[in-house]
Amino acid sequence: MRDGNVTPAAEVAVELHADDYALSAHNSARILSLLEQGVLDGISIIPNMHDRERCMEELARAWDGMEHKPHIAVHLNIADGRSLSGIADPLLTHEGSDGARYFRTSWMKLLFASHLPRRREQIRRELTGEFVLQIRGVYDRIAAFAADADGNCPFGLDSHTHTHMIPVVFDAMLDAVRETGLTGDLRYVRVSREPAGVFGCILYTVSPVNLVKNVLLNLLSGRAEKRLDRLGISHGLLWGLIMSGRMDAERTGRVLPGMLRRIREKKMPLEILFHPGIVLPEEAAAEEYTPSDLAAVISADRDTEYESVCAMRGMLSGGLR
To answer: N or C, fewer C-beta in 10 Å, the chain?
Structure first.
């Protein structure tokens, strides 16, 4: 978001956002290059992969030289990566060859467990402890170089594979924010509500699986929005579900005018989500990833998204209506 959080392309806030910073060194270097070029408005930082500290050091070194300081969010991760709190629940983790616990969370099983009262409370406690460590692990590092003169360091929250939209995970996330004492610095929580009607012009190119994800996440969004509204925490609309995995320039250019009209009508901010980093095969610690996630993070489609976010910055800066 630029100049008072309003881009020339719309009278409401639009943020070009990259997920997965700190996934790996090479992945993060690509995202950092986009920050230094002024392409991105925000990034989400994964807190539980082996290259996190190295990537945070690179971000700290580059920070003062950035003309546009990005919004930063913690990208809570229980889809894969190491459990920082050592959760031993077999629904959530398994033991690696090094003795550490690694997340292997089934989205649908966790959604089902959200409706079993006793199991739900156990999972909520486990995830609250994990999220305290994940949030603090990122926040304390960014506050060291990004806090304002009063010591405040606003941050956002979202999650890898949108798991925070599962009710028990969402509640654990808010519990963790309270436990960290960082409620006052929490500026924004991603709600995975994506307007489906604007994609008619590319509907024949869209994966049916992504359409199902869009419907499910929109259904879960209502509960999240009500909780956030009661707490006075900002949220908005998201673009990046139906086209997830391949936000290419040609199709995003076709969808953009309709999406801008929709957010003006709704008077809600929009987060446009890209994955422009790519993990080199030799960087990938196999135990940190599920097979499907590993295939995604090394995919050439991430080169497509790198090019696409650059094109999108040009379209928005040019005042596309």
So the answer is: C
